[in-house]
Amino acid sequence: MVDGLWHGREWQTSRPLKIVHVGDFFFSLKRKAPSQFSVGGKLSNGLIRNGHHVIDFSYRDVARAGSLFGSRNMGRHHLFRALKEFLAFTAPDILLLGHGYMIPPSVIEELRQQQPGMTVAQWNVDALFVEENAADFAARHQVVDISFISTAGPVVRQVVGDRGRVAFLPNPVDRSVERGQVFALACPEADIFYSCGNPVRLRTICGQEWHMDEFCELLEERLPPSVRFAYAGVRGQPYVSGAAYAALLEQTAMGLNISRRADHYLYSSDRLAQMIGNGQLVFMERQTGYDCLFSDQEMVFFSSLDELVELIGQYHKAPKARREAARAGWQRYHALFNECAVAHYIVGQMLGTLSEDVHAWRHLTGL
C-alpha cells in the first residue's frame, strides 16, 4: 500500500488559470436530480480553492433552456451555439468537459479550431464495462488533449487505444459537501447502508450474479437480528436524493460499496466518496484493487459472501473498532482525494507539471 500523502503543501498554483468547466453541478433544472454530491461541483470547488477562475457551464440546463418544451435533446443545437459563443467571449486557458455526452467529437474539434490556444480535457466517472459509456469516452478521447476516467489498469487502453494521454480520476471528497462524521456518533440510527438506483439490474459480487433485493435479503437472513439496515432504492424502499439521502449517509455506521462489477481495477461509483467521506466504515470487494491504496484498518475488504457476513458481524459487535477503522479511512481518503488535491492533480496532469513525489498513488494505476 502506497502512502502517497503530500504533507504541508498547499495546492494553489503560481499562475491562476481561466477554466470553463462543462458538466453537471449542484443545481439542475431537472426535478429531484441527484446533484447534491455532484463530482463536477466538487471539482469546481477544488479548482477555485486552488486559485483558478472557474466558470461552470451546465450543459444539460443550457440545452433545456434552449428548447421550447424543456427537452435537452431538442435543445442540442442551442447548446452547441451557446458554448461556441461563450468560449469566444471568455477565451479560457482550459476547457474541461465533464461527461458531456451531448457534445460530440465534431463539436469539440470545432471548438478547438475556434480557440487554438485552449487545452481541452474530458473527465468521466461512468463505468467502462458499459458499452455505450466506453464508446462515448473513446470517441471524445480522440479529440481532447487528455482524458480522465475513474477506472485504471490495462482495460482503459483497450477502450481508448494507444493514442493520446489518459489518467485515472479518483472520486473526490469535499468537506463542505460530505459533512458527516458517523464515526463520532455514539449511537448511529442504522448499521448498514446500501443504495441502488436499479435493483433489477444484475450485479456481479464475488463471481456470482445477484438481483440486489435478493442479495440484501440474504444478508438480512445471515446477520444477527440486531443489525439495522438503511436502504435506498432496494428492498421496497424508495430511491432518495438531496437532504434525505445525506441523512442516510450521515446516520449509518457502515456502508456497502457494491458496483455492478468489481473486476475493473480501481473502478467504483462515486458513492464510495460519499460513504467514506461522511465517516462510514466502507465494505468493498478486494478484487477492486483498493487494498493497494487503503489498509484493512481503513476499509474492509472481502473476497467471498461468507467473509463479508463474518466481517459485518465482527464490526457490529465491536463498535469501538468500527469507529476507529471508519475514522482512519475517513482521514486517509480526505487526505488523498480531497477536492483541492484532485483538482491540483488534474491540472498538473494536463500541463505536465507534476513532480514524481506528488500524488504518489498515481504510480499504481497502470496508466
TrEMBL record:
<dbReference type="Pfam" id="PF13524">
    <property type="entry name" value="Glyco_trans_1_2"/>
</dbReference>
<feature type="domain" description="Spore protein YkvP/CgeB glycosyl transferase-like">
    <location>
        <begin position="215"/>
        <end position="336"/>
    </location>
</feature>
<protein>
    <recommendedName>
        <fullName>Spore protein YkvP/CgeB glycosyl transferase-like domain-containing protein</fullName>
    </recommendedName>
</protein>
<dbReference type="InterPro" id="IPR055259">
    <property type="entry name" value="YkvP/CgeB_Glyco_trans-like"/>
</dbReference>
